[in-house]
Amino acid sequence: MKFKHILLTSLIIIIGIGPLLAQTAQTPYNIPPGTEKITLASIFRDSNAQGIFGYLILLTFIIGIVYAIIRYIQLYQKEKVNAPNLYKSLKGYLKNNQIEEAIKITEKLKDTTLGYIFWNGINAYKDIPKDASKEEVSTQVQNAFDEAALQKVYKLDAGLFWFDILAQVCTYLGLLGTIWGLLYAFAAISNPAVLDTQKNLMLSAGIKTAIGTTALGLIAAIPLTLIKGALQGRAQKIINDIDEYSVKLINFITSLAKG
After folding, report:
1. Residues in Cβ contact with 147 at an 8 Å cutoff, skipping those fewer than 6 apart
2. What would the pLDDT profile of 177-207 be if each residue is shown by its tens digit?
3. From residue 64, how far is each of 13, 129, 155, 166, 217 by CA, in Å?
4. Model pTM?
5. For the segment 206-249, what is each residue's pLDDT rounded down to a tens digit?
């Protein structure tokens, strides 16, 4: 993993999680006494004033970040293949009838989706009789490429829907906390046994919980949605490369047929 990728991942974790676990900032000198500065830490604290909604949102967000790191490694590191260069290299070997060399190159990349598809297709081409017609070569190679693609391509964007689910859970937990805080506030107002001064405090606490959980749910949901979009874009780029260069390689192999 490159340093810039490590730095990017660290920044996502620090920005998303760090402030939530930080201590509440002290009241600055440039605002009136008793007025609290609004921070992620204070929002997190308020969201847990009358429940554990803040912790549940944080737990959901952490699960999303961990899964994002896993998928990032899969899509950006394990699938790291320069498709144009690989195609040009294989094209040169196949043109010179160096099929074994082409197989060795793709075999080293079998852990990637594109490498596996090319490896499977070139192996199928090697087993085709020399006197086969262009139609037979095209059909058999095409079938080999399609079979390998069906085995691998769907895994590229599989599971990315979980980011949508986690983002929705964060939002729904925020909404549930909002309702819970409002219920607490209304209960304080309607209770005749509670003193007026206590009612004000309980009303304020309930509203803080309501607003805090709503804000925290959105703060957690937005990054998860953006992460999903970035990973989806990467997966789509890989799929596009597979589609483009698979067709090019199939057409080139077909053009080599003598029949």
Report:
1. 120
2. 888 888 877 776 776 665 566 767 777 777 8
3. 11, 51, 18, 7, 13
4. 0.77
5. 787 888 888 889 999 999 999 999 999 999 999 999 999 999 99
**Residue that is written with structure tokens 């079979």 in the block:** 147
